[in-house]
Design brief:
Elements lengths: L1 H5 L7 H4 L21 E2 L2 E2 L5 H14 L10 H19 L5
Antiparallel strand pairs: 1-2
Length: 97
């Protein structure tokens, strides 16, 4: 029984785990509320742009250009420079796939 309490599971079939008729894990209780960052005052929220920003950061490390604008953010430029240095180091030491 210790394995069940101390272990962790990595599920690949998330569609089966979250299917309401095939899984015992998906029983939402309470009122329906929108997910975080899905709505903003001007329309769709930032939640739908997060994956594009993450991919953009990796492509910037490899190609030096971005598809989405930074809007002059010094902090974003610093993060991009750090990601680039880590990707370059991983490439040099052949530990990046």
């Amino acid at each position: 029984l210790e394995l069940f309490f101390a272990g962790a599971i990595l599920m690949d079939e998330v569609d089966l785990v979250l299917h309401p008729l095939k899984s015992e894990l998906n029983f939402p209780l309470g009122n329906k509320e929108p997910l975080d960052l899905t709505q903003s005052k001007i329309g769709k929220g930032f939640r739908w742009e997060i994956p594009f920003h993450l991919l953009d950061a990796l492509f910037h490390a490899g190609e030096g250009r971005m598809a989405m604008a930074l809007h002059g953010s010094v902090e974003a430029e610093a993060v991009l420079a750090e990601i680039k240095s880590v990707v370059d180091e991983g490439t040099r030491s052949k530990v990046l796939q």
